[in-house]
Structures are given as structure tokens and as C-alpha cells.
Amino acid sequence: MNNKEKQAYFLTLYEPNHDKFERFCRARVYGGMEYQDLINDTLLVAFEKLDSLKSETAFLSFLFGISVRILSNKNKKKKEDSLIEMTESNVEDFNANTALSAEVHFLHQALARLPESQQETLILFEISGFSIKEIVEIQGASESAIKQRLKRGREKLFDILNYKSIEKKEGSND
Predict the structure, then answer these.
(1) Is 152 exposed, middle or buried (0-12, 13-18, 19+ CB in 10 A)?
(2) What pLDDT tens digit does each residue of the chain (174 aa) get?
(3) Which domains does the chain have, with CATH numbers?
(4) Which of 77, 88, 141, 165 has an alpha carbon 20 to 30 Å from 61's alpha carbon atom?
């Protein structure tokens, strides 16, 4: 397949999945990088590795897998950089992101504390709007495992967010 044919084939696979993929990327990148950058980086890698795609029906899962790896690598790099920064300076500006609502900030903080599988499942189901059957295909797990991840993830989120709200209230009483 020549390059023009490959591009046309790639676009044929991507266009019907664009909206779902964009929602997924928006939900996954909170504070880590711009979602458009994640989309672009993912599409570049996906295009280069298109030959390794085993089934057209697995294209969206293929994109999700690539984006999760890219984000994971970026987060690893970011953690390494922040450790270096912390050793250089102990000052943190808490007012730098004043445009972010407190609820969204706490939600994303809480999501980050969940195990990766629960975090991804909750984002796919609650934020990106995928059905349980679609998540089964994306994650390659059983339906009961997906339901269990949703249940446990919601419970942990509830516990984390309630702890944060209690902690916040206690902090404001001082």
C-alpha cells in the first residue's frame, strides 16, 4: 500500500471514532498536557504502526492503548522533572490555576489516586460515555470485571472525595 492509500485507509478508520477518542483524551490528560497534543501524538504513532493493527474493529482500542502509553511516558517524565524542581525550590504557587473549579480539581486528583484499570474504566464509562460492552472490547476484560471496576472505583472515589471535603472543612476552621 502506498502512502496516499495508507492515509486514506487511516482516515476511513479514524473519522467515525474521532468524537469518542477526543472525549477519552480530554478526560485522560487533566493537567498533564493539552488533549490536542495527546491526540496528535497518538495519531502519529498510530499511523506509523498501522501495519500492526490486526482488525479494523479494534482501531479505537488501538488508539486508546497508544494514547495511554504516551500519557504514561509523559507522566513518568513529568514526575522526574518535578522531583528535580522540588530539590531546587520548595515554593509552590497554589494560585496559578485559578480558572479551574475546585470540584473538577478534586475530582481529577481523586481519579489519579485510583488504580489505573479503575481510573480508565470510570473515564471510559462516566466521562466518555462508552457502554460496558464497548469497554469490555477496549480493555479485553470480562463484563463482570468491568462492572466490578466501576463499582470499586466509584466507592473509592466517594471515599477519597468525602475525605477531601472533610479535610477541607477542618482546614477552614483553623
Answers:
(1) middle
(2) 788 999 999 999 999 999 988 888 888 876 657 888 889 999 999 999 999 988 888 898 899 889 888 887 877 666 555 555 544 444 445 555 444 566 777 777 788 888 888 988 888 888 778 889 888 888 889 999 999 999 999 999 888 888 655 555 555 554
(3) 1-92 (no CATH), 95-174 (1.10.10.10)
(4) 77
| Secondary structure of the chain in HEC code, one letter for each residue | CCHHHHHHHHHHHHHHHHHHHHHHHHHHCCCCCCHHHHHHHHHHHHHHCHHHCCCHHHHHHHHHHHHHHHHHHHHHHHHHHHHHHHHHCCCCCCCCCCCCCHHHHHHHHHHHCCCHHHHHHHHHHHHCCCCHHHHHHHHCCCHHHHHHHHHHHHHHHHHHHHHHHHHHHHHHHC
Of the CA atoms within 13 Å of residue 173, those in its CB half-sphere come to: 6
Cβ pair 25, 35 in contact under 8 A: yes
Give the number of other Cβ atoms within 10 Å of residue 63's Cβ.
25
